[in-house]
Automatic annotation (TrEMBL):
Residues 1-21 form the signal peptide. Keywords: Signal. It comes from the Bacteria. This is Glycosyl hydrolase family 18 (Putative chitinase).
Length: 348
């Protein structure tokens, strides 16, 4: 009888929803443990932060003064034993055995983004998955672990408070201090497991955002399965495999009221000044923003992938070696030029 009562309680709390059951009735996302996390700004200018772990003072100072108001810490990968690694450090985990074990300096740098004078008002963390022929990671394991009826050696399955997934996301919330987890699944495409991860995030008072480049039906199913307000932004990849994507078209196909923000690959990507994988100059980004906004007048922001490429642009002296790639000679100037490409494209 105690087991039955406990199971009934956990089902009601959303921690034991049966696999393949119809999506539960959803209420509006509300505060569970303290104040609600920050929402995207009305004009949401976003920088993806690969190349920032552990980082240095100047990188974070430039971000605070950049005019970007959302920073997405990227990219982070879950491994088979429950450890989490930064894409900037493949040898040393940031999470091990349910504890934060990464750089303490990095935590200070991330916290500094919230200084009163900083333009940054929202911080997310990107969970990236495998692509092409990479070994299983992040979304393979979320798919394997979200169901508490499964047994996985060394892992506490499910999304309850003792589960491996819960402890990972809790560290991202409480130790790293993020407002949202960003879903960049490019291989597994199991919408039920992501919706359950969203339930977990909501329990920890986090938003969830989506970072697609294909498979609109998959992302639409995640939105349909999630309680209103949990997902509050969609970052659409408009480069490489998503080079033909348009935010307005995606918004219509998703049948959503959620904001859709285009992500641009900047010059300096793949350590070259050339237009590889549809990378763009600040001027080209502005032109694309203008084109997208004509099709989607309510579009309210855009994003740049990524800080590491900005550093490469300056390191490779692109302004001199390949002037057509842009005129920025310094790290701080290139960030501002990219910000202006997004912002000015919205105001034309």
């Amino acid at each position: 009888m105690k087991t039955l009562l406990l199971s009934s309680y956990l089902l009601a709390a959303g921690f034991l929803t049966p696999v393949f059951a119809a999506p539960p009735a959803k209420g509006t996302f509300t505060s569970v443990n303290g104040p609600l996390p920050a929402s995207p700004a009305d004009t949401n200018l976003t920088m993806f932060g690969r190349g920032m772990y552990p980082g240095d003072d100047s990188t974070y100072e430039n971000l605070r003064n950049s005019g970007f108001n959302t920073v997405i810490l990227s990219s982070f990968y879950i491994h088979a034993n429950g450890d989490v690694y930064s894409g900037d450090d493949h040898k040393n985990p940031i999470i091990h055995d349910g504890q934060y074990v990464g750089s303490r300096e990095w935590l200070k740098y991330v916290a500094s983004l919230r200084q009163a004078s900083s333009s940054v008002k929202r911080i997310e963390i990107l969970l990236e998955g495998r692509w092409y022929n990479q070994p299983p990671n992040t979304y393979d394991y979320i798919q394997d672990w979200y169901d508490s009826s499964r047994t996985v050696e060394g892992i506490v399955t499910g999304i309850g408070t003792n589960s491996t997934l819960y402890k990972i996301i809790k560290i991202m919330k409480e130790d790293i201090g993020v407002d949202a987890i960003c879903i960049d699944d490019e291989s597994v495409y199991n919408s039920e497991s992501i919706a359950k991860l969203g339930e977990l995030a909501a329990h920890l008072n986090l938003h969830m955002t989506l970072c697609p480049f294909k498979k609109t039906n998959y992302w639409k199913d995640i939105i349909c399965r999630s309680q209103p307000g949990l997902i509050d932004a969609i970052y659409l990849q408009c480069y490489d495999g998503g080079r033909f994507n348009m935010p307005g078209v995606w918004k219509d196909k998703l049948e959503t009221t959620l904001p859709v923000y285009p992500i641009f690959l900047c010059r300096g990507a793949f350590s070259t000044c050339n237009p590889v994988h549809n990378s763009k100059t600040p001027a080209e980004i502005k032109a694309e923003m203008i084109r997208f906004k004509k099709d989607y007048p309510e579009m309210g922001g855009g994003a740049i992938w990524q800080m590491a490429d900005i550093k490469n642009f300056v390191k490779n002296n692109c302004a001199v070696q390949t002037p057509e790639s842009g005129t920025s000679a310094t790290f701080s100037q290139y960030i501002l030029d990219l910000r202006n490409g997004l912002k000015d494209g919205l105001s034309e």
